[in-house]
Amino acid sequence: MSHTPTHCADQIEALLTKRGVRLTMGGEPTFVPDMPTGAEWNNDAMGPEKLNYARRLTRKLLQNHFNGGLVMQVFGKLYPGEPLPRWVLLTLQRKSGESLWAEPSRFLLADKKGRNLPAQASRLIRAIISELGLDAQAMPAGELRAKKKTIGYVLPLNYENDAWQTGKWPYDRAHPIPLISGDSPIGLRLPLSALPEDALKRALTVEVRHGALEVFLPPLEWAGFQKMASILEALSIKLDLRDLVICGYAPYETKEETTGLGLAADPGVLEVNLPPCETWREYDTTFRAISEAAYDVGLRLTKRSLNGVIRGTGGGSHLAFGGPSVDQNVFFDQPTLLTSVLRYWQHHPALSYIFTGQYVGAGCQAPRVDEGADHLLYELESACDGLDRLPYPPTREMLDQFFRNLLTDASGNTHRAEICLDKFWNFASPSGKIGIVELRAFETLPTPEMMSTVALFIRAIITMLERTPFRKKLKRWGASLHDQYFLPAKLTEDLQAICADIKKAGIEFDPAWLTPVVDFRCPVINTLAIPGGELVVRQAFEPWPLMAEESLGASTVRVVDNSTDRIELSLCDSKLAETGKLIVNGVELPWQFVNGQAVIGLRYKCASAYPALHPHVAIQSPLHIQWQAADSVAEAKYYYWNPDGPLYDGLPDSDEEAVRRCKVRWKVSRNPLPADSQPAQTAPESQWTIDLRRQ
C-alpha cells in the first residue's frame, strides 16, 4: 500500500487517541496582493486597501465556508509610533453549528463606502434601548474642537446577573461627551478617566463613519454577547439596516462556545489567524478553504522580488499547538513534552532554517536559542534538566517561569523567539494564558499543499515526542551551526534523519513529500555542464548581521547588513571532484562530502549597502564560476542583480517575468580560457562555506 499524507495523518491521530491526547493546531499564514504597492504592503501595518481585502475575503468565506458567522472589527495591540490599535476582522462561529448571524448581507463587506446617513445612528440607538427595556437615554458625543456637532451616541451598558444594566454619566444633550481626538470608533475615544469613580465605565456606541453604521460593543461575557447579537440582527432586519460594522470587544470566556477566524493588519501583509483545529485533516480543509477564497479575491502566498526571486510573503506563517482548553492541554499535563520539543529543535537545525525565510540567524524574526546570548544554552539545559527531575507537578505559573526569561532574542524580546511562549501562561498579555506553544521559524509557501505538508511534519514530530521523550543534552554546535546548516545539502540530510526518527515511532512520513519545500526555499539557480555530469548551483541561507543602533527622532532602531549572499555549489557524484577543480573569482574552492555529494558553500558581497560591514570590499557579483578539467574548461557568470543595467523597471508583473529575470542572471561563457587561481583561505568558522570577502 502506498502511503499518502492523509494516511500518515490517520496514523498520527490513532496514536494520539490511543494515549488520550488532544492536540490542537493552528497557524498564521499571511497574504499579499499579486502586485503589492503602497506603505501598507511594505512596512506599515494598516491601510485602506488592506481592510478592503479583509472585508472581501471575509464575504467570500461567509458565502462558502463559514456560514452563520458573525463578523466583528476588533482591535489588538497598540504599537509604539502607530496612532491606532491594529484592527482584526474577526468571524465568530458557534461550535455547536448553530447560526450566530444568519444575515451576512447586512455587514459592510465590500470594497466601497457605506450608504448610511448620520440620522441612522440616532434611529438605531433608540431601537436598541427599547429592545433592552432600559429606562435610559443615549448621550450624544462630539469632537473637542467642535463640541456642538454630534457625531455619535453613547449608552453606558453592562450585562450581569442575567440582566442589562446602565448608568448615569455627567453629560446630556446640552453638554455632549467630549471625545478624545482620533480617527478610531468613538468607543475607543471615550473620556473614561474623567468619569466619577463609581460610574459604569463600559458603553455601547453607535455612529456613522464613511457611510458605515458602526456599533461598538463593550466587553461582554458570552451570555450577554449572544443576546446582543440576536438583538442587533433582529433590528437590522426590522429597520432594514445595511453596511453595518459591529466593532469593539469580542466576547470573553467563550472558548467552549465559539471558534474564530481573524484577519489581522500586520506590517506588509494581511495575516490570517486560523481557528484551532483538533486534527490535521481539519487544519488542511480549513487552510485550503481560506487559500481558495484568498486567491479568488486577488491575494497570494508569495511575492516577487526585483531580481525575479519568488519568496514567501515575509510576514511569517507561524504554527501553534495547544489543547482544546487549558484543562485539556498536553503541555500542562506532560511538562516533559515541552522540554522534549526544546531539546529536539535544538538538535535539528533543519527545523530552524528550512521552513523560514531567506534571512536567518541571530538578527532574524525567530532566532534559535543558541544564536542569542552565550549563557542561554547552558541555562536552558539547566532548566530542562530541572523540570524533568522536579518531584512534583509544576503549576502553570512555574512552568512559564522555567522558560520565559530564556526563550527570547538577543535583546530579551520573548515574541521574537523561535519557540515562543507568549500565549502559554503569560500574565502580561490579555490573551496570554491559553497554553499555546508557537513555532515562529515558518514562512508562507507557494501552495496550500506544501504548507499543509509542513504542518503534518511538525505534528508528526510532536506526536513522536509525546510518545517517546527526548532527553539528550543540548548540542554545542559552535561555528559549525552556521557554517554547515545554511547549506541545502546539510539541511536535507537533517530532514532525512528526522523522518527516520518519525518512522521508528510508527509514523510513515515520506521525506520526498518535503522535496518541493526544499526546492522552493533553496531553488536551483542553474547548472553548468561539465565532463561526466554537471555542477549545480543552489541558493543557500544567509545571516545578515545586526548593525549598531541609530537614533531616528524619538525612537532607536537597528538595521541589518544585507549586502551578502550565500550559494551552494555541488556535484551529484563525489567522484567528479577528483576530475577537476572549481574556481570562483580566482579562488579554488575545496570540497566537503554529504551523502555521496561533493558540496561547498560560498559567501560573497552581492550588493552595496549602507550601513554595511567591510566597506573596503567591492561588490563581488557577477561570480565567475569555472570548472577546470584536464582537457576542458567550463565557465558561467552568475549575476545577483540585473546584468543589463543598474535598475529594474519595477517589480516583475508576473511569475513568468520573474523567471525570465532569474534566467538572464546566469550566462554561460563560450570558449573560456583557464583562469589563474589561488587556494581558498579558510577560518575555523568557514570550513564548509568559503567567505569570498576574506580572499
Describe the protein's architecture and organization.
Helix content is 26%, strand content 24%. By secondary structure, the chain is α+β, with helices and mostly antiparallel strands. Among the domains are: 5-44 and 267-473 and 485-514, Creatine Kinase, Chain A, domain 2; 523-694, no CATH class. A twelve-stranded mixed sheet has the order 9-5-6-10-11-12-3-4-13-14-2-15, with helices on both faces. Strands 21, 22, 25, 28, 29 and 34 form a six-stranded mixed sheet that branches. Strands 32-31-30-26-27-33 form a six-stranded mixed sheet. The longest helix has 20 residues, at 448-467. The protein is globular and about 100 Å long. The model has no long low-confidence stretch (mean pLDDT 93).
